[in-house]
């Protein structure tokens, strides 16, 4: 596919204009031909006309003259009551992004900028309404794109290929690009970004969260908190101290994914990269929930620091990679990462902890799975913090409680190598009554006291409680036996902090 702006008919054929279904009975296309705030050919008039029409309608752009074009509003836009796609890519001069998540930043060229008056941007007004917004730069609003707040229903919000909170070229605006959130989904089913390059959004410079969802949501392929190049911070959360991605639901949530195109870069934000504040959402068990494959705290390359979190001296307590915050009890742990290819998150270089519970309470529970969590600067340099007080020492028998049950970390006693086999002896000082057995013990390469590459796991049965246990891992041929760390997770998904490294004699900070 050439990178030219595609004619509208071609975008429909290729699936780019997802809600532009001109062949559907009753569907209509309304053309914006002026940058005027109101009147014939205006965006405002097009929304009013689409609300009065039936079918799945499209707003396209055909503004004459050299672009790009800015539409400056003097009052909030009308709410959406039906099914509508607002397609900024229909404007001549716009170019969709062609870069994948591993190519760095975005090469999107937008031709339409909509500047708000401080009120609502594109928003769902009615239950059952469906809105797609694509190919626009949106700034000057409270919440730039907003869903329905009346409860889980058939409403759908889709956000593809936009720059939300920045200038048209993806650079920072003075102050907050939008005073509220970039996308505030309410309880609407929401998709922000996608695995195709053209679907990737830039969501940066918003005073609130870049994405705030209280219901089912998919967030994938986006740059969140950076410029369009993915190298410079344009922080979200500057006005509210909210996390960049604020999740208030406990089911049907996916942030990132194992596929290469699904990963988000969530870096450079004021407080936390991701906040799972599921006291905001409905109760019940955690299901269909995944935070996988994301880069949190580095630039788009994954190689250079671009931390989330307040600058010192408040960094340790008020920001970092992922925060779990909940009041009350929780039946299942929030899963973070995974052991299959592409599922682990890279959570590194943040100014606070890489993953943390906000307080030492029983309701804040998370299950760490294969993630790379290192070079984070929490209280006392905790990469994982289950007590919000820095590294938590083991207690006899693991009798304490709180976040993640205060799970004790494994003690690595000895490591020996024979060829490509690495034999590890370890114990976990946890009594039978202090955790749900068996325990899963994950071994990682040590990276500055954090978890580097995942090496393998052991299932520690109840019969081994407190006893010395042996596991043999297979190393790639000719690989130096690395210093090791370990994490213990009980059968209910309650993970420990990262153990002290065993054999740090050869450790350095250049790995």
User: Uncertain segments of ≥5 residues (pLDDT<50)?
Assistant: 1-24, 504-511
Which percent range fits the helix content? under 10%
Widest sheet, order of strands:
3-5-8-11-14-17-20-23-26-29
Helix-strand makeup class: mainly beta
Number of strands: 36
Between the first and last Cα atoms, what is the distance in angstroms? 39 Å
The shape is: elongated
Mean pLDDT across every amino acid position: 89
Cα gyration radius (Å): 24 Å
Beta percentage is 25-35%
Tally of individual helices: 3
Total domain count:
2
What profile does the largest beta sheet have? 10 strands, parallel
Question: What can you tell me about this protein's structure?
Answer:
It is a single chain. The protein is mainly β and 511 residues long. It folds into 2 domains: 76-382; 396-489, Sandwich (Immunoglobulin-like), CATH 2.60.40. Helix content is 4%, strand content 30%. It is built from 3 helices and 36 strands. The chain has helices at 8-13, 43-52, 315-318; strands spanning 29-32, 56-61, 69-72, 83-87, 112-115, 122-123, 130-134, 137-139, 145-146, 156-160, 163-164, 183-186, 189-192, 202-203, 211-213, 217-219, 223-224, 245-247, 251-256, 265-266, 272-276, 287-292, 295-296, 320-324, 334-337, 346-348, 355-357, 366-369, 372-374, 384-385, 411-418, 421-427, 439-447, 450-460, 469-474, 484-489. A 10-stranded parallel sheet has the order 3-5-8-11-14-17-20-23-26-29, with no helix packed on it. Strands 1-2-4-7-10-13-16-19-22 form a 9-stranded parallel sheet, covered by helices on one side. The chain is elongated, with a radius of gyration of 24 Å. The chain starts with 7 loop residues before the first helix and ends in a 22-residue tail after the last strand. 57% of the residues are buried.
